[in-house]
Design a protein that fits this description.
The complex is a heterodimer of chains A (200) and B (740).
Chain A: H1 6-14, H2 20-28, H3 35-46, E1 53-56, E2 61-65, E3 71-75, E4 81-83, E5 94-98, H4 101-108, E6 120-126, E7 133-140, E8 149-151, H5 153-160, E9 167-168, E10 171-172, H6 179-188
Chain B: H1 14-25, H2 37-41, H3 43-64, H4 71-74, E1 79-84, E2 90-93, H5 104-113, E3 127-130, H6 133-136, E4 143-152, E5 155-165, E6 194-198, E7 201-202, H7 204-213, H8 217-245, H9 247-272, E8 276-287, E9 302-314, E10 319-323, H10 339-354, H11 363-366, E11 368-371, H12 390-412, E12 427-434, E13 439-444, H13 446-449, H14 478-484, E14 488-495, E15 511-517, E16 521-529, E17 554-559, H15 563-568, H16 576-585, E18 592-596, E19 600-605, E20 610-615, H17 629-637, H18 643-648, H19 664-682, E21 684-685, H20 686-699, H21 704-716, H22 718-727, H23 732-739
Parallel strand pairs in B: 10-11
Antiparallel strand pairs in B: 1-2, 1-5, 3-4, 3-6, 4-5, 6-7, 8-9, 9-10, 12-13, 12-16, 14-15, 15-20, 16-19, 17-18, 17-20
The chains are: A alpha+beta (200), B alpha+beta (740).
């Protein structure tokens, strides 16, 4: 990738410390299959999780292999645990919803280019541990949250790392969206809703 | 000869040849090419051959565009030339509007299916023109394709293809992307593939058609002459190449080049991606209700388009599949389209996302599969649906494809290759009538020729940094546009401070273009379209970088201003900010103001009216509170970000907001801690949000626009209905009980 140590290069790139000329040089270089392992090495040195880091699913979110062999999405700023990567991490976040023009103007500055109050809402998803902004969504009222990336960990282990597939307590690790399990648990508890509560 | 069936390809007619090739491709290798024989045997000659055909199409583009008069082709480079196989797959393409190569084969197939090789006949020097999206692959009415067959003796061995984005398409509203159009009959002058000339000369009637059926005949006629000239250059150059390399080599190697590209795409997916599923979405509104009711009653409706894209990434096999099972249905508006818009977008996005180290050609379309459901926005129930303005809706749809791949590539560690993929464009169009009675239609393409680049994991987006659909584009000069659009003067063309999605790395600042209608003009009609136009939403619902998506675009019109008088005194406002100051000071006066976030088909403007188009911003990457303090300071110094935004969005108090007793860094640390506390106070655990939002859904507590969209989607898409109702844990019984 470069005469410099690849992990150092990736670290500089990640932290925006690289000049555009250096980036262009990297862009021109031939890509190689060992990038994933180089990147994991860089992440293991720059995050609190060491070599338990598997991959990145967001600017501040990593899939980490837990000591018990399970996998979790964790915040790289504060290590907050968002749980199983097959469950949309947003369901374990804190969310602020902006609905009024005044709230939109705090982030979009000009009324003429803001989302439309009453039709659109802007959701800001924060890490409950450190309140880092993890994702922003501008969607219609009542739209379910997007689950942007569901990685197939079994394929990552077997096809990219050449390792054995991970397992679950119930056996083989299955690639499937399990977000509904969380929602169903909420639905099975009280349904009393304070419509004046926070978040609206 | 006459109307005798012709076996143009040895023992096959054209349609027999297409079916033959398609059947060979069904095995997984393009045209059944399991081995790249010529490439393996002599790679140097193979590369020399490709270089020769590539040079042929590049040379055709660079020379022929000087024939054109329209600034879209000549100034912005919105044209393309290609060498095609007999079946219409592109072997080599010039730079320019490269995505269209994905669509050329649709017109060729239409001609084959309809027996054009018998009637009207396909002969050397024949010219075929096509600009009907339903039959030709042309994405929208302004895109016009010209084909000239390539023969060796009696045998059809390929096609030269040329295209460009023309200035005016003759639709119900002036311009080339009519955003107000209920069906194909109001889209404009649409020509299914048609023989329009022979011996490399257009028939006179074609020019008369342009004169009668479009609002920019001079430009359109010269554009056609440009396409014919370029195609003739391709034919001549490739004929020389065949003389040099031999006919058999030409036939074999042309196809190998396509298969080689397909294989490289597959290999790139294997190398660049993390396997899994990605989902991104964007929304567009089509507010026709109250505008078209009296004349187009079927369209008297407000639509919210659900542009949802799921990508299934199979890294080990190098396969990408796009699932559009939750997209909105086709309807009586202009933002739908046909297969050509999909293939053109697909090619562009494959190029951006995985197009490394390859020869750009149709092999890229062959490397990705997709499902667009029957009856959906881009697979309408019949050929009577409008395809007036599908670039506005399909670009955000495909941003969802690229966003997924950017997310996956970042996960694999290819940081340098990642960006937000919230790509954009804005178009201005209309018709001007001068006081002497002369009138003309136009597209004004400043913000089509260059858009902001998206933020990346390591750098800000840049204004006017790319036209990702055109590697050789340019925004064009103000003088050029004023020259071809007499009567409309620029007041400003510059970036709008703070107009972006903010983030650790912010999006590229969008542009503000302000114009005044001069007193040379009797009256003018203007419209505004574009993929930047999220209307009532941001450009994308969310972006890979996780920060604020790009704000929408807008059109602001001031009626009856005094700006012409100010200009006579040598003064005019340099942008929105100054204009607002002048309004406050009473210096700039007007009789009315309109704001249009939505796409606009036709607004009548008169001398003294000012209109401002704001667009082409992109979204941010990462938390703004993580932005380097010196970058925030620099932004304020450059007037890219206001002092207020620096303090409240980035947490860096400067100027009057800063405390004199502490350093900027200390101030920022304190302010950022304060903003984090404010985030905590303003937010709730997701479960609490789920309960309150769900109650709103159950109660139907939402705008009619949104409620209608959910009802439409649940009626059309089983997948959407299932996802929506299961997420909110709804069924008819629940809703009924909770209502009570």
């Amino acid at each position: 990738m470069s005469e410099r140590d690849s992990r150092e290069v990736l670290r500089d790139l990640e932290t925006g410390r690289m000049s555009w000329d250096e980036v262009r040089e990297i862009l021109r270089q031939k890509k190689t299959l060992n990038r994933f392992s180089e990147y994991r090495s860089a992440l293991s040195e720059t995050t609190p999780f060491g070599d338990r880091v598997l991959l990145r699913v967001g600017e501040y979110l990593l899939v980490v292999c837990e000591p018990d062999g399970s996998h979790a999405v964790r915040c790289l700023e504060c290590e907050h645990d968002f749980g199983d990567p097959r469950v949309n991490w947003k369901l374990s976040s804190r969310v602020r919803v902006r609905r009024t023009l005044e709230e939109f103007l705090e982030i979009y500055l000009y009324e003429e280019v803001c989302p439309e109050p009453g039709i659109a809402e802007v959701r800001e998803y924060y890490c409950p541990g450190c309140f880092t902004l993890l994702c922003v969504e501008c969607v219609p009222t009542g739209y379910p949250p997007m689950f942007e990336f569901l990685p197939d960990l079994a394929s990552v282990y077997t096809d990219i790392l050449g390792d054995t597939a991970p397992t679950d307590p119930e056996g083989e690790w299955v690639f499937e969206d399990r977000s509904l399990s969380k929602v169903e648990a909420w639905a099975s508890t009280t349904t009393t809703v304070d419509t004046q509560g926070a978040g609206r | 000869m006459g109307l005798v069936p012709r076996k143009l390809l040895g023992d096959r007619t054209l349609i027999e040849q297409i079916r033959h090739s398609d059947s060979l491709t069904e095995g997984g290798f393009y045209h059944g090419l399991e081995l790249l024989v010529e490439r393996e045997h002599d790679p140097i000659t193979y590369e020399r051959f490709y270089d020769a055909v590539h040079s042929a199409v590049m040379g055709a583009r660079e020379t022929s565009k000087n024939v054109a008069a329209s600034p879209g082709a000549r100034e912005l480079g919105e044209l393309l030339f290609a060498l095609l196989t007999p079946e219409g797959h592109a072997v080599a393409v010039s730079s320019g509007l490269v995505g269209h190569q994905g669509a050329f084969r649709i017109a060729i197939k239409y001609m084959a299916e309809n027996g054009y090789d018998r009637n009207p006949g396909i002969r050397p020097g024949d010219i075929f023109l096509a600009c009907d999206p339903a039959t030709s692959g042309t994405p929208h009415p302004g895109d016009v394709y010209t084909f000239i067959p390539l023969f060796s003796g009696e045998e059809l061995i390929g096609w030269a293809a040329g295209m460009n984005h023309t200035m005016e398409a003759g639709g119900s509203v002036p311009g080339a992307w009519p955003p107000w159009s209920p069906n194909t009959f109001t889209d404009g002058y649409l020509v299914p593939p048609t023989k329009v000339g022979e011996n490399y000369e257009d028939y006179t009637w074609l020019y008369k058609q342009f004169e009668r059926r479009t609002r920019a005949p001079m430009f359109n006629i010269l554009d056609e002459k440009m396409r014919v000239a370029g195609c003739k250059m391709v034919i001549d150059s490739v004929t020389d190449i065949i003389d040099k390399f031999g006919l058999d080599y030409f036939k074999a190697t042309s196809r190998e080049i396509i298969e080689e590209t397909r294989r490289i795409c597959i290999d790139n997916v294997k190398m660049l991606t993390i396997p899994g599923r990605t989902r991104y979405v964007s929304f567009r509104t089509v507010p026709y209700k109250g505008i078209v009711d009296g004349v187009w009653p079927q369209s008297a409706h407000n639509w919210l388009l659900h542009l949802h894209t799921e990508v299934q990434i199979n890294t080990v096999e190098g396969k990408l599949h796009i699932n559009w099972d939750k997209i909105s249905p086709a309807n009586f508006h202009a933002l739908g389209g046909y297969q050509g818009i999909l293939e053109s977008n697909l090619w562009l996005n494959v190029m951006d996302a995985i197009g490394l180290g390859l020869k750009p050609n149709s092999g890229m379309n062959l490397a990705v599969t997709y499902d667009m459901p029957q009856g959906a926005l881009f697979n309408p129930p019949s050929d009577k649906y409008s395809a007036g303005n599908p670039w506005s809706s399909s670009v955000p749809l495909f941003n969802g494809f690229s966003s997924g791949l950017e997310t996956s590539k970042r996960a694999r560690g290819f940081v340098e290759e990642s960006w937000n993929a919230d790509l954009c464009w804005t178009g201005i169009q209309g018709e001007i009538t001068l006081k002497d009675g002369f009138s003309f239609g136009f597209c004004q393409m400043d913000l089509l020729g260059a858009s902001a680049t998206p933020a990346r994991p390591y750098m800000d987006g840049e204004p006017l940094g790319t036209a990702w659909w055109n590697p050789s584009s340019d925004t064009g000069s103000v003088e050029e546009w004023e020259y071809v659009l007499p009567g409309i003067y620029y007041l400003c063309k510059n970036v709008l401070p703070g107009y972006c999605g903010h983030g650790k790395f912010r999006g590229g600042l969008g542009m503000q273009l302000a114009f005044v209608v001069s007193d040379e003009v009797k009256e003018a009609i203007i419209g505004k379209v574009g993929a930047t136009t999220g209307n009532y939403f941001t450009g994308q619902a969310s972006v890979p970088g996780g920060s604020y998506p790009a704000p929408t675009s807008t059109l602001i019109v001031y009626r009856g201003t005094n700006v012409l008088e100010l200009m006579r005194n040598g003064e005019y406002p340099g942008g929105i900010e100054e204009l607002y100051e002048w309004i406050d000071q009473g210096k700039f006066t007007h009789k009315g103001r309109e704001v249009h976030k939505e796409e606009v088909g036709a607004l009548l403007v008169r001398p003294g009216d000012v209109y401002i188009v704001v667009g082409n911003a992109t979204g941010g990457w990462g938390d703004p509170l993580h932005r380097a303090i010196e970058r925030v300071e620099q932004d304020v110094k450059e007037n890219f970000v206001t002092v207020e935004a620096a303090a409240e969005i980035y947490g860096v108090p400067l100027g009057d907001d800063a405390s004199g007793s502490i350093s900027v860094t200390e101030g920022a640390v304190a302010k950022r801690a304060e903003i984090r506390r404010a985030r905590e106070a303003a937010s709730v655990p997701f479960e609490e949000f789920w309960r309150t939002e769900r109650q709103g859904v159950v109660n139907g507590d939402m705008h009619e626009f949104v409620a209608d969209a959910y009802a439409e989607l649940k009626g059309f898409s089983t997948a959407f209905k299932q996802d929506f109702e299961s997420f909110w844990q709804l069924d008819e019984e629940t809703i009924g009980a909770e209502h009570e």
